[in-house]
Amino acid sequence: MKKQYAVLGLGRFGGSLVKEFYELGAEVLAIDIDQDKVDQYAQYVTHAVQFNGIDQEGLKQVGIKNIDHVFVSFGGNIESSVLTCLILKEMGVPTVWAKAHNDNHAKVLEKVGADRVIHPERDMAKRIANHIVSDKIIDYIELSEKYSMVEIVATKKIHNKSLADLDIRAKYGCNIVGILRGQEIIVSPPADEVISMGDVLIVMGHNSDINRFEREGV
Amino acid sequence: MKKQYAVLGLGRFGGSLVKEFYELGAEVLAIDIDQDKVDQYAQYVTHAVQFNGIDQEGLKQVGIKNIDHVFVSFGGNIESSVLTCLILKEMGVPTVWAKAHNDNHAKVLEKVGADRVIHPERDMAKRIANHIVSDKIIDYIELSEKYSMVEIVATKKIHNKSLADLDIRAKYGCNIVGILRGQEIIVSPPADEVISMGDVLIVMGHNSDINRFEREGV
Ligand SMILES: Nc1ncnc2c1ncn2[C@@H]1O[C@H](COP(=O)(O)OP(=O)(O)OP(=O)(O)O)[C@@H](O)[C@H]1O
Ligand SMILES: Nc1ncnc2c1ncn2[C@@H]1O[C@H](COP(=O)(O)OP(=O)(O)OP(=O)(O)O)[C@@H](O)[C@H]1O
Ligand SMILES: [Ca+2]
Ligand SMILES: [Ca+2]
Ligand SMILES: [Ca+2]
Ligand SMILES: [Ca+2]
Questions:
Q1: Which domains are assigned to chain B?
Q2: Is the whole-model pTM more than 0.90?
Q3: Cβ contacts of B21 on chain A, cutoff 8 Å
Q4: What is the DSSP string of B148-201?
Q5: Less crowded by CB within 10 Å, the N or C end of chain A?
Q6: What is the ipTM of this complex?
Q7: Cβ within 8 Å of A, B 56-85
């Protein structure tokens, strides 16, 4: 059977989540204490209902027990968010994810059984700070604590040089696993591939190696 | 000279930005209308000052003209955010980025000259919705409109099979550019590399190819 999702709290984060689920064709129940929000998102969901997330009777009536994965997204209202998570876990919802307002909020959410705590603003700030400070880094994924993959813009410094000329693996210990050129992508580029300024290099490696390459090599 | 940053508005996003800049060793001026916020973040910044972002005299006094890159992060207060961006651009700040509350806010920010508009909640919701709906996708970067790189968890289905056995490039048109196994990473894995359940495959390719691989191949 298709998985059933519910989003409680239709702020910027919960509301965006609902729209994304809609685009991905997922079935979603949306709940907000504010009728205007309910009306605004009704078009994107299977059901949209107005009530307070801490209202156990309301949760029973919408059949929350049959939902596989619930998302609690009232970050600003810490007490309600914590209480709602507690109730959802006690009612037997298999997976409950919650948005945290700050680190203390996160700790309490984990204590009451939230299966995962999300910090959208903090995580996006991290991405953007890296991006701004470096000037060359466009985006990144942390692959593990030590390894990352980053998109780095090729500057004048390496314009018209081949990967063999640059010898990045030997000099910096990191690997170019792809090159984006306009809308095209070159996967596992060969050693004789020539870089142009503005190419986006997709680099995988140890964080310290990538940092060194980004500062000195490109 | 080292680049100078300013963050106006120390909510969850602006506040996180300040902390990230601090960890990256960048020089930051922090401004908030709320003295409590100013006190809370003073330890992370070069200067922390309390005033309203629309106060042109205040901006002059802190030397905003000498800042290279200003971040306006009062999403909830649309009028102030727009007016502040307008003033900053008129005062000659080279780069102004602003956080938008919604799409209309974003449009107005662009009209008044914001160099980039950020939607932290929406962007993170997009990542998370993809992650939840797929069950196998851990994270992704959009490389272009058509291409992405994703982290996909290897399931029982491909346990103990080599990359040559799976022949993913021929069957699905996408490429495994790396494998994460515990804390170790295998870059550009050879064809005889054997996959174990729980390995994280780093897959690059056309969005539709990745989707097909994720649904049918893994
Ligand atoms: N107890 C509750 N039950 C149901 N909905 C609630 C409850 N408390 C708040 N909400 C709703 O949750 C939504 C998000 O609330 P709020 O704006 O306080 O959080 P936020 O973390 O700042 O949101 P975002 O940053 O995602 O915009 C609002 O639409 C609000 O009406
Ligand atoms: N005109 C202003 N001048 C200076 N600071 C302001 C102004 N308006 C709001 N702020 C500050 O900006 C910060 C963020 O405001 P608010 O919480 O409304 O935005 P937000 O987008 O919901 O934030 P976030 O989601 O990042 O927590 C607050 O600390 C607030 O005091
Ligand atoms: Ca927010
Ligand atoms: Ca940058
Ligand atoms: Ca808010
Ligand atoms: Ca998932």
A1: 4-118 (3.40.50.720), 123-217 (3.30.70.1450)
A2: no
A3: 129, 133
A4: EEEEEE--GGGTT-BHHHH-HHHHHS-EEEEEEETTEEEES--TTPBP-TT-EE
A5: N
A6: 0.82
A7: 69, 75
